[in-house]
Each structure stands twice: as structure tokens, then as C-alpha cells.
Design a protein that fits this description.
alpha/beta; Rossmann fold; OB fold (Dihydrolipoamide Acetyltransferase, E2P); 3 domains; six-stranded mixed β-sheet; five-stranded antiparallel β-sheet; globular
Length: about 450
């Protein structure tokens, strides 16, 4: 099939897929987990357990705090500890439920067998309910509650399901390995999403730097009605929702609109695998695949990790922190967040843990903007990052809002390409914070 891509902007940083050939390993269960109650976009979940309660793997420990929210389940069996707050990936204090591990007893309803289950017996409404019950969120990084995508708004109609197998961030290989090792389950999961949304077409987009995954899934898809595998050009941020839609369908999702307004529903491959496990195995989202890597990491790897596991345990399994490490990042190098501690737990949104040396993290000295326009050229949304930076420094929040800074993906392409080494994304993030304050003030 002909390779496709989006037409506006984009860059091509070095892949550095150091762990692409490393099969998924199951990480040992920790002695204690810290499970945050806000691992998703939307309202935090509300705890339904207290200190001293006994839980099993898969026990509901916090229920969704609203429609746009997600259930949280225990990833281990043991005893619930005291409620507390710890510093999370965001750098702020987050409420967690701590559980001291005692054995590995699972809820009886969960099917632990790895045997493939292809027959889909649930109705569309039952599928949506099962996904909601399982606490599934977007595992590509956005962590948007998945059941919301199955609830089609009035006046809209789904026409196609798009599955994001791009994994365009450098270093990350969790989705790649999942496609190679759980390809059949991903195709069944895609069929489940198609049934839930009442569509007869599904497309899985994969960047062409993963030829083995493209070949593998293309062969498997021959036995699945309506599912196509679409090779995509290696062009960051190919995995952005709007860019994926443009690449595969040619449609442009305008600012403020949702994919479903164009008849589309988009899911990450990790999310769709979790949908398969929820619907076919009654398994809630209690673990995920995480890449641990870096140029100086002795054993770059992909691990199946229980939610709430301290990141230090993943790092130790991969050979420990190299002596010259200057920064540890959760997620990818373009959009990930620097960590303040390795005690921070793995969450539903943890796709990778990257360890960088001082050489790889040192910022070059900033110089004056020369108005070269490179930042605008690589912006996949046609925005003007140089203007955003200037307006932030002038603290002109009204003009910044008018310039559509809130549409920015924060993908980092502008900072990556800027010859003046301006901290464009940092300034954009600062500007967004101020605009959110401005909008809140207007409501009063």
C-alpha cells in the first residue's frame, strides 16, 4: 500500500529506537505500589477503599468522579495503607492509594489465560459499559477516558475507526513491541471498537520505520473483515491525532472540533489492546508496556509493568542509572516530562522512562530571534511560535490568546528546529497557564 503522510510542517529527529528488538519482559511485582487517583484527563476518581482493606488484583479502589473520568483498580493484591500525597510526574503533589503487596491473588472474574478469544459476544452498549468499568484511557499519552469515545454525540455518526500504531516519539518502542507480540489481539480489539461504533472500516496507521510490524499486521489482517494496515512516512508528529487523520483520510480537523464530528474515532494500539483484554478477558487496566532506554543505559528494554510500581524498579531492571545521567524523562524526548524523583510510580500514561546524559540535555546558549520563520515552517498546525514567544515575554495575554496559542500541541518541533535556541515550548506552556487564569477570571 502507498505510504501516506500529513502535508503541513513536521520534522524528522533521529529515531534512537534502541530497544526495538527487545521482547516485552514482565517486571517483578513490587513490595508496595502507590496508585494515583488522577491518571486521566478529567475529574479525579473517588476512593472506595480505606486503610486496612484487603484487595485483589483487579479490585475497584476508586470510581470515576464524573463522565469524563476513569475507574482505578488495584494492580496487586494486599492491604490498603494510609491515604497520602506524593510528588507525581507533573511535579505537583498527587493523591495516591498505597497498597502493601501480599501474594498475587486476582479477582475471580478475570480470565488470566493468554489464549486468543476472537468471538465478540457483547453488544455495542455492553462493550462501552465494559470499557468504562475497566477504567481504560488513552495509552498514547493523552489519557482521555476511552468510554467517552464510544458515546457518540447527538447529530454525529461514526464512519471509521483509526488505530494509532505510529509511535513517532524517538526512543519509545512499547507500541512497536506490542504490535509484534500481540498483533492478533490488537486486530480483535479493533474489531470490537468497530462493532461498538457500528462501522465496517478500521485502519491501523504505522510508520514505515517499523517494517516488521507492518508486514506482520498486514498478514494477520487478511483474516479480519474491513481492517487495513496503512504505512505512514516517518515524519514527527505523525502520531498526533489531527496529523494521523490528515495522513490517512485527508480530512482536516479544525480547531475546537472533535474527530467524531468527521465520522472518526481514534485509539492508540495500547488502548485497543486494553479494550481487547477488558471485553474478552474481563481484565481492567492494571498494567501497561513501558520502554526504559537511553544511549548509556546498559539494557534498553520493554517491560510489562503493574500500575503504581516505582519507576526506580524499572530503571534498576534495565541496569540502573548510568553515572553521567543528568535528566530522567517520563514519556518521549519531545513531549515527555523531566522527573524529580525515581520514586514516582508508573501510571496509565507512562509510555517510557528515558535516561539522558549531560551532553544530551545541555541547552545551547540562547541568541536573538532572526525571524527566519523555521518554527512556523515546521509547525504542523501552521501557527507562529516566534510570535507566541514574543507575546509571552511582553506578558500580552490577550494578544497571545487571539493568536491561537491554545491550539498548540506542544510537540516541540519549533524548539527542535530553532537556530536561536529559543525555549519556545517552555514559553508557550507558560502562556497557556496565564490564559487559563484569564479565562477563569472572566467567569467570575
Amino acid at each position: 500500500m502507498k505510504t501516506k503522510t500529513f502535508t503541513m510542517g513536521g520534522i524528522h529527529p533521529a529515531d534512537n529506537k534502541l530497544s526495538a528488538d527487545k521482547p516485552i519482559e514482565e517486571l517483578e511485582i513490587p513490595i508496595e505500589v502507590q496508585i494515583p487517583i488522577a491518571q486521566h484527563i478529567g475529574a479525579p476518581a473517588k476512593p472506595v477503599v480505606k486503610k486496612g482493606d484487603k484487595v485483589k488484583v483487579g479490585t475497584l479502589i476508586a470510581e470515576a468522579g464524573g463522565f469524563i473520568s476513569a475507574n482505578i483498580h488495584s494492580s496487586v493484591s494486599g492491604t490498603v495503607g494510609i491515604a497520602k500525597e506524593i510528588v507525581g510526574t507533573s511535579g505537583y503533589l498527587e493523591k495516591v492509594i498505597s497498597i502493601k503487596v501480599e501474594g498475587d491473588e486476582w479477582e475471580e472474574s478475570i480470565i488470566k489465560s493468554d489464549e486468543l478469544k476472537k468471538e465478540i459476544t457483547l453488544s455495542p452498549d455492553e462493550i462501552q459499559a465494559k470499557v468504562k468499568e475497566a477504567g481504560i484511557v488513552g495509552l498514547g499519552g493523552a489519557t482521555f477516558p476511552s468510554h467517552v469515545k464510544f458515546a457518540i454525540p447527538e447529530g454525529c455518526k461514526a464512519e471509521m475507526v483509526l488505530i494509532n500504531g505510529v509511535e513517532c516519539e524517538p526512543y519509545l518502542t512499547a507500541d512497536h513491541r506490542l504490535m509484534l507480540e500481540k498483533g492478533e489481539e490488537i486486530l480483535v480489539g479493533t474489531s470490537i471498537a468497530m462493532k461498538a461504533l457500528g462501522v465496517d472500516k478500521g485502519v491501523i496507521g504505522i510508520e514505515e520505520n517499523k517494517p516488521d510490524a507492518i508486514k506482520h499486521l498486514t498478514k494477520l489482517a487478511e483474516n479480519y473483515s474491513g481492517i487495513l494496515i496503512q504505512p505512514l512516512k516517518v515524519q514527527y508528529p505523525q502520531g498526533g491525532e489531527k496529523q494521523l487523520i490528515k495522513s490517512i483520510t485527508g480530512k482536516e480537523v479544525t480547531a475546537g472540533a472533535l474527530p467524531i464530528h468527521y465520522g472518526l474515532a481514534v485509539f492508540n494500539v495500547g488502548t485497543i489492546f486494553a479494550v481487547y483484554e477488558a471485553v474478552q478477558k474481563n481484565k481492567p487496566l492494571i498494567d501497561r508496556i513501558v520502554t526504559v532506554t537511553g544511549k548509556n543505559v546498559s539494557k534498553p528494554s520493554n517491560y510489562k509493568v503493574r500500575i503504581g510500581t516505582p519507576l526506580k524498579e524499572l530503571i534498576e531492571k534495565a541496569g540502573g542509572v548510568p553515572e553521567n545521567t543528568a535528566k530522567i524523562v517520563s514519556g518521549g524526548p519531545m513531549m515527555g516530562k523531566a522527573l524529580t524523583s525515581t520514586e514516582i510510580p508508573a501510571t496509565k500514561g507512562t509510555s517510557g522512562v528515558l535516561l539522558f546524559s549531560e551532553k544530551d540535555t545541555k541547552r545551547a546558549d540562547e541568541t536573538a530571534c532572526i525571524r527566519c520563520g523555521k518554527c512556523s515552517t515546521v509547525c504542523c498546525l501552521g501557527l507562529q511560535p516566534f510570535l507566541f514567544a514574543a507575546l509571552v515575554r511582553k506578558r500580552n495575554w490577550e494578544k497571545l490568546e487571539e493568536a491561537h496559542v491554545m491550539d498548540c500541541l506542544e510537540c516541540g518541533s519549533c524548539s527542535y528546529t530553532c537556530p536561536a535556541n529559543l525555549p519556545l515550548v517552555d514559553l508557550i506552556k507558560l502562556g497557556k497557564i496565564e490564559i487559563k487564569k484569564l479565562r477563569e477570571a472572566r467567569k467570575k
